[in-house]
Every structure is written in C-alpha cells, then in structure tokens.
Amino acid sequence: MAIVAVSSSAILARWARPEPLALAFWRTAGGAAVLGMPAWRAPVRPRGRQWWWLAAAGVALALHFATWLASLRLTSVAASVTLVCSSPLMIALWLWAAGRRPSGRTWAAIGLSFLGVALILAGDAAGGAPPPDGGPGSALAGDLLALAGAACIAVYFVIGDRLRATLPTSVYAGWTYAAAAAVLAPMALVSGVSLVHLDGRAWVAVVATVVGPQLAGHTVLNALLKQLGSITVSLALLLEPFGSSLLAWIFLAELPPLAVVAGAPLVVAGLALQLMANRSSPPAA
Questions:
Q1: Is the CB of residue 238 less than 8 Å from the CB of residue 270?
Q2: From CA 177, how far away is CA 192, in angstroms rounded?
Q3: Residue 102 has pLDDT above 80, yes or no
Q4: With the CA atoms of 175, 181, 187 and 190 taken in that order, what torsion angle do they form, in degrees rounded to the nearest 10?
C-alpha cells in the first residue's frame, strides 16, 4: 500500500499540473501540520546545533521537491522518478569523498547505475519526447532537474541519519517539513507563484498528495523501519519507478521512451546491489 501511495505522487503532479513550488509548499506544510503536535509533545526536543542541522535538512528537502516536481513538466514520468530515486548512489559517492573506501561490489553497483543514467540522458539529449505540458524546455533539462532532486534528498537523508540517532522520527520530520515549507513560501513569492489561487484540480492534487504519498506512503514506510529494517524498506522503494511508470500508462496513457526502458532497469539493479553491499546506508524512507 505504501509503495502504491508513493508511486502516485508523480501521477498526481502530472494530472493536475499545479505550479511545482505551490505543490511542494503545500505538501511540506501539510506534513508539518500533521506531525506538528507529536513533535511538540515529544519528550525529546532539538538542542543547540541540532536546530541548524534541522534547518539545513529543511532547505535540502525544499530544493528536492522544487527540482523534482519541475522535472515532471519536462521529461517522462519514468525518467524523472528513476533518476530522482538515485539518491543512494549520491550517498555512496559522498561517503567515498568523506574517506570511506567503497567495496568492489559497491563500485560495480555505482558503475551499473551510472550506465543506466547515461543511457537515459543520452536518449533524451538525442531527441527525447517533447515536454509533457507542451511548453518550452527539453527532456534532458528535466532529467538534470531530477538528478538535482536526487542530490538534494541525499543530503536530507545524510543529515537525518545523524539526527535520528538522538531525535524521534516525528520530531525530525515535523521540524524539517516546517523548515522546508518556510523556505518554499518565499521562493514562490519571489517567483510570482500564488500559493492560494489554485484551480480545483490542483487543490485535489494537494490534498491527495498529503494524504497519499506523504502520510500513507512515506509515513507508513518510516513506521515499518523497526519491523522490516532499513534495507528491506529501501529495496521496496526501488519499486517506485516501475509503479509510477505503470500508473502513468494506466491513467495518463504515457509509455516510457526506449532509452528509459533500457536504462531504468540498470539504474534500479545498481541501486539494489549498492544497498545490499552497504547495509549501513541511511534509510531510504
């Protein structure tokens, strides 16, 4: 149920076509509203430098949603979701840069996934499908935005791995959602995007996104971490590109481009291999 809920996020954004900054704001603000009371009543509260780390995580989460939702206007659902799910690769490369030497299996996983990413980028650069909304732009630009979203959420996961050692999940998520909403609001104002003047379809997408992907999806997966473990949950999340592609075919009559059909399985296979090779990776939920 949680994977289906998470997979519906891209479909809702593509169906309603709201402004990415508006949908990102209401998604994080809705999550903060739901988790605000548990976070406020929690016996453990952030202290000292933890507030700065929470703010940094909120900025990373805001940029993740802003870039990824924008990518859905330019490239296919399959390409966007596959590339934004490559955050475990970003984390592996960050750990390598920080001095943790990857194993041979991890290098094989990174190489396999980057081969898949290269196929997707090359296919879209060589003449990918026109932007789904019919506006100016290119599929390659959408792919790059999705990769930027993956890098941002990787930062969010790395900070979360540090903070959740001492903070409950509700406290960490509640404050980071609030920080993300606080960052997205002025971004929308500067960009001239209205947060309140949305059409009926956009409001339906906002409510459905908060209830579905945010609560029934990521919140349920976070609750399952203790029962199933981070590796099982992370591997389950790798079904999201396939779930989103299937939902896009059923509800939007959108088939993935040939380059994505060839590259996406390589990306997912590499991510699965990397997760199995490095069991100390931060939870993907």
A1: no
A2: 22
A3: no
A4: -120
